[in-house]
Fold this sequence. Notes:
Blueprint: E1 2-8, E2 17-23, H1 26-61, H2 68-100, E3 108-110, H3 112-127, E4 133-138, E5 145-147, H4 149-165, E6 172-179, E7 194-200, H5 223-228, H6 235-245, E8 249-255, E9 259-267
Adenosine-5'-diphosphate is lined by residues 158, 162-163, 166, 201, 203, 206, 214, 220-222, 226, 231-237, 260.
Amino acid sequence: FNVRIEALPGEQDEQRSALVIFRDLTEIRRIESMRVDFVANVSHELRTPLATLHGFIETLRGPAREDIEAHERFLEIMEQQTSRMTRLVTDLLSLSRIEAAEHTAPDHEVELRPLVEHIAAATELGSARRGIRIAVDIDPNLPPLVANSDEISQVLQNLVENAVKYGRDQSTVTISARVAADLPASVSLAAEDVAAISVSDQGDGIPREHIPRLTERFYRVDTARSRELGGTGLGLAIVKHIVSRHRGALSIESKVGEGSTFTVFLPCKAGDVIKPQHFAVG
Ligand code: ADP
């Protein structure tokens, strides 16, 4: 607490009084410490590839100057490190752009199917090398989302990329979507106005104790593995911010040794749900 005492001036004969102000600094300190941690994390994430680049430049100038075979290998590593820094900066910019818009809610009608099909086709070009198939299962009765189409594409892309990255070779990643049957407590819309979009993988799964922290910036279950697979540690933080800007929710279910399902709940156009028809026969 921060306490301030101020004497209040009274009229000549009036009893003098004082004003005591208590200010709870817990939240301010928490935000300040998060900011300091964030800057430290970003610096660390950038310093590692920069140090690697610096090391290879020195080697190419010195001991490996004449070794043409080494040049190719070193340039490839330098290229990977540069791409990693580019991805990090792109993710940081996305995050700050979304945070700046967090207090506004997107309001366009967005058809989910073309976005999903585009991402599935683009991902499968790369994932097929590891025998990973992308299956799509979207309820044809799903109404359009009330959303920002670029942001929803980014959510899908981050989730599908993770499912492939952390999925097993020769497995299937499934993207499915339907009107939500059950809603998490954090969603205040009616169930028939909410789409549940899931991305499931057949990967190693995530130990339960890590799940609540996965959407924190730079939180990784296995940092070395994430870096090796080209991760920035920001993908799920971006997903969380986009979903919360849409007044939706994210739920994560996972079984170690079996795989994980990430479900996003997003508002869809109310009143368009085609309910099953029941006909009396006879
Ligand atoms: P990264 O760039 O490291 O993948 P993310 O923010 O996308 O960062 O994910 C954070 C962490 O959550 C990952 O490092 C990984 O440990 C874990 N994770 C995310 N998606 C999955 C998944 N489908 N299966 C297993 N672990 C996952």
